[in-house]
Amino acid sequence: MSRKILIYGGTGGIGSEIGRLLISRGDEVFLVGRHSNKAADVVSMDRAHFISGDVTSEGVFDKVMEEVGPQLNGLVYAVGSINLGSLRRLGAEDFTRDFELNAMGAALAVKAALTALKKGGEAASIVLFSSVAALHGFPLHASVSMAKGAVSGLTLALAAELAPRIRVNALAPSLTKTPLAEQLLSSAEATEALAAQHPLKRLGLPEDIAHLAVFLLSPEASWISGQIVSADGGRSSLQTGR
Ligand SMILES: NC(=O)c1ccc[n+]([C@@H]2O[C@H](COP(=O)([O-])OP(=O)(O)OC[C@H]3O[C@@H](n4cnc5c(N)ncnc54)[C@H](OP(=O)(O)O)[C@@H]3O)[C@@H](O)[C@H]2O)c1
Questions:
Q1: Which residue in 153, 152, 128, 132 sits closest to 141, CA to CA?
Q2: Cα–Cα distance list, 230 to 23, 42, 131, 212 (Å)
Q3: Are 19 and 10 in contact (CB under 8 A)?
Q4: CA of residue 81 to ligand 1 center, whole Å
Q5: What does DSSP assign to residue 132?
Q6: 4-175+213-229: what CATH class?
Q7: What is the C-alpha separation between 29 and 6, in angstroms, rounded?
């Protein structure tokens, strides 16, 4: 049966890959972002609808739901930032911006979609995005770690509040090759050094993360809620000494 899935950040590296996989399974997807040209291939597919919107602008979530319609089976919030800097350099506006984009946006997106998700028939599923940086300490990550830690807390609270009708989980990727990570992967040397810090000796690819999101959205994951699932090449939990 075809399902309707809403993806904020649906034109991004990970969000667009989730869209492609869902469409290949017969689902209908609504992709939200500011620029439709970013993932023109997926935006132009049958069963894909692009909705233009900035998650930091007022009223955007209600406007998106007006375009999606009254019923929804799943929601993904794959908008995020990697704003690195020492505490000395970070200002209140950095913390506020990262919190708004990563955490508050996720909460407001879910709030606006609740009625539609409850009409989705079988239990609906929500997938949010935390990060390895909320599980493991890295220097220069104060703002993004704080924002992603909030997403992990939000995931647990909403999973409890919305059970059993709606499942809520989050993914916690490590560095994944998408436009978001480009600033950190500016040279072959930097890319190699960052890959080597992972016990599985490579960086993530969008499909590594997208397959997990598609599973969490599926009925096969119907007994899984309130989980922060790591997809990080072992970065958060393994010390191999190599
Ligand atoms: N890539 C990594 O290394 C990594 C690591 C840990 C966690 N994550 C998390 O994984 C999720 C997906 O990241 P990604 O790597 O796929 O990032 P990405 O390629 O940069 O995609 C981000 C998406 O969010 C949209 N977006 C950004 N700002 C927006 C705004 N103000 N309003 C509406 N849409 C906005 C972008 O489209 P427009 O610019 O057109 O709006 C794009 O569709 C994020 O939550 C990220 O924090 C990623």
A1: 132
A2: 24, 26, 8, 10
A3: yes
A4: 6
A5: G
A6: alpha beta
A7: 6
Answer for the pair 174, 129: CB distance below 8 angstroms, yes or no.
no
Q: What is the pTM of this model?
A: 0.98
* CA 203 to ligand 1: nearest atom: 3
178 within ligand 1 shell (Cβ under 6 A): yes
- Is 233 touching ligand 1 by the criterion CB < 6 Å? no
d(CA 35, CA 85): 27
Which atom of ligand 1 is found nearest the CA of 177? Answer: 1
Over residues 62-72, the pLDDT tens digits come to 999 999 999 99
Does 142 contact ligand 1 (Cβ within 6 A)? no
Q: Residue 6: which of 81, 80, 79, 64 has the closest Cα? A: 64
Question: Which band of pLDDT confidence, cut at 50, 70 and 90, is reported for residue 232?
Answer: very high
Q: What are phi and psi of 77, to 5 degrees?
A: -115, 95
Task: Kindly compute the dihedral angle of the four CA atoms of residues 153, 159, 162, 166, in this order, to the nearest 10 degrees.
Answer: 130
